[in-house]
Structures are given as C-alpha cells and as structure tokens.
Design a protein that fits this description.
By secondary structure, the protein is an alpha/beta fold. The protein contains 12 helices and 12 strands.
Length: about 325
C-alpha cells in the first residue's frame, strides 16, 4: 500500500485538530487513524447508528442482535450496576467529596447510575437520546429531572452542577471535544467531570480478541490512559486523574470463549433479565452453579491482574475538576 493511502489529513474526533494522521486499521466501511497530535484513534466511516432507537421494545442492539425489551427487575439492575468498576469508583469519589449538590448523568441509559447517586442524597438530573430508556428511568426508578435528547436539549436552568458523568459515551461521538466543552460550561466552579471509555490497551485487544462492540459505527474513537489525560487537560480541567479498572471475569470470557459462544451466553442472561418467568431466569440469575462460575471467574481474574497489573483492564475512568475560578 502506498503512502498516499496510509496517511491522510483528517480532523481528529478526540482533540479536534487536523493533521497528517496515519491509518492503522481498515474495515469494509471504515478506516481508523491515529492522531498525530493527541495519539488517540478515530474512525472515518459513512455508516452511522441511531442511538435513539437503542431501547425500543421492538428494536435490537447493534452489539449482538439481542431484543432490548423493557427490563422487568429494577432492583436486580441496581445490584448488577455495582459490578461496574466505573460506577463504584464514581460513587466512592462523590461520597468522599460532597454530601449534597447536583449531578447530571449524560447518556444515562435506563437511569441506573442516577438512581444510585440519588440514594446518596444528591439531586439528580439525567439525559439520554433513547426515549424508551428515559421512560424506564422515570416510571421504574422514579427519576424526575430527565430529558430524552442530547445535552443541547436540556432546559436553560440546568446548570451549575457539582458533578457531571458520562459513562461509555464519548467513544460513540463524532466530536468528543464538543461535548466535553459543553460539560465544562455546565459545571459549577470546582465541580467534577467523571467519564469512562474502553481502554484500547485492554487484555483482550493485546491478545487479538477485540470485541465486536469496539468497531465502527458503534465506537468511533479508541482511548488510552495517556490520551484521556491529555484530552481532559486540553479542555481546561485541573486535578486530572485517570484510572484503569482491573481485569474482570468478562475480560476472561471474551478472551477464552469463542466469540459466538460468548455472545450466546450474554443473550441468554439478558433474556433472563427481560422475562418475569422465574423458571426461565433461574439458571443465569439464581442457580448456585452459575454463582460458583462467577466467583471462580472473579478469583482467576484477580490472579491475572496481580500478575500483569491493572494497565490491561477493560475500562478507563477519568476524574477532572473545573477550576474554582473557571468561567
């Protein structure tokens, strides 16, 4: 392949700068470039997804074709949410930082994280482009301050937040920097932005088992710890801290199991969450054997993490503060 095809002047979806960026991956409908400025990876593709349809009762997920009907057990969803390292770390950080204040969750999904924050005593606000997700958040979790739309659709009085979160959001966007700048403006001086993205250096990728969900058009950017640190500092945030979560049993599943089999297990488990029929959910949600498999996976993952360190964990979690005098 000649040099004219290997490099191209493109605007980076992460930092927004234009440079002569080297292409590092090709697919049928996309090319992925590495930015010459921030070193982040971004995709150019003509294919797009409409995330407003992600939770439609008749819709399907891009990831594995599973039916995303409205979930039947809100409390089970809250319990499952505690398995996500990003949520746990954010809740711990908020609890230590403030006993009151306001939170805005951008891309809240069905409202699990805002509900957990509400239980800490904070006033919560939430938005998501999928109207079905917002319906669930209001009807099943009782969230009051919600918007079915983007950050551009929020009411004018939604501002001066003490915390704004965006979990697994920025990697889906065409312009990550634009969203981060708007978040910066909505924060109160001294407020915190907490975000997460997949770690492009996670163990599954290093072993050549990149998951289906990490390809365009689902994910348009790929981040490292250094890229996220540079990104947040470039917006104007201070006290930036980026953590890599540990290796977990899901990582091991994506590495050890054939992709189609791993997806089949995921679909069966999700189907169990979607049904009110106890007999159908028993194996994946309540059976002691399945619980033993989960605990064993956690133990093995801990041993792997102790051997190779956290650098190869699946998720990056970034914490950043708007300066006290920030406008």
């Amino acid at each position: 392949m000649d040099d004219s095809k290997q490099t191209q002047a493109e605007s980076c979806r992460i930092c927004g700068k234009t440079g002569i960026n080297k292409s590092i991956e090709y697919g049928e409908h996309y090319t992925i470039y590495r930015c010459s400025h921030c070193r982040g990876d971004f995709a150019q593709t003509a294919v797009s997804l409409d995330y407003r349809q992600e939770y439609n009762t008749e819709g399907t997920s891009y990831q594995d074709g599973r039916n995303l009907k409205i979930l039947s057990d809100p409390e089970e969803e809250l319990r499952q949410a505690n398995l996500f390292s990003g949520f746990r770390q954010a809740l711990k950080f908020m609890k230590a930082s403030s006993s009151n204040g306001k939170l805005l969750d951008v891309g809240c999904g069905i409202g699990v994280f805002p509900k957990l924050v509400e239980r800490l005593g904070l006033e919560v606000y939430a938005l998501d482009p999928a109207i079905e997700a917002i319906k669930y958040a209001t009807e099943y979790f009782g969230l009051k301050n919600t918007v079915a739309g983007t950050i551009d659709d929020i009411p004018p009085h939604w501002q001066d937040f003490n915390f704004i979160t965006a979990f697994a959001v920025l990697e889906h966007l065409e312009q990550s920097r634009e969203l981060a700048k708007k978040i910066y403006q909505l924060l109160a001086p001294g407020g915190y932005f907490i975000m997460s993205t997949p770690n492009r250096n996670r163990l599954s990728v290093k072993l050549g088992r990149r998951e289906d969900w990490d390809y365009p058009p689902n994910h348009l950017t790929r981040w490292s710890k250094e890229v996220m640190n540079s990104f947040l500092n470039g917006i104007g945030f201070t006290n930036v801290m980026v953590k890599v979560d540990g290796v977990n049993r899901w990582d091991l599943g994506s590495i050890l199991l054939p992709s189609k089999f791993n997806q089949k297990i995921t679909r069966k488990k999700v189907s169990g969450l979607l049904t009110t029929n106890q007999t159908k959910t028993e194996f994946f949600l309540y059976n002691p054997l399945w619980r033993f498999v989960q605990i064993s996976g956690d133990v093995i993952a801990s041993l792997v993490e102790a051997t190779i360190g956290k650098r190869y964990g699946t998720q990056l979690i970034g914490f950043a503060q708007k300066p006290s005098g920030g406008a």
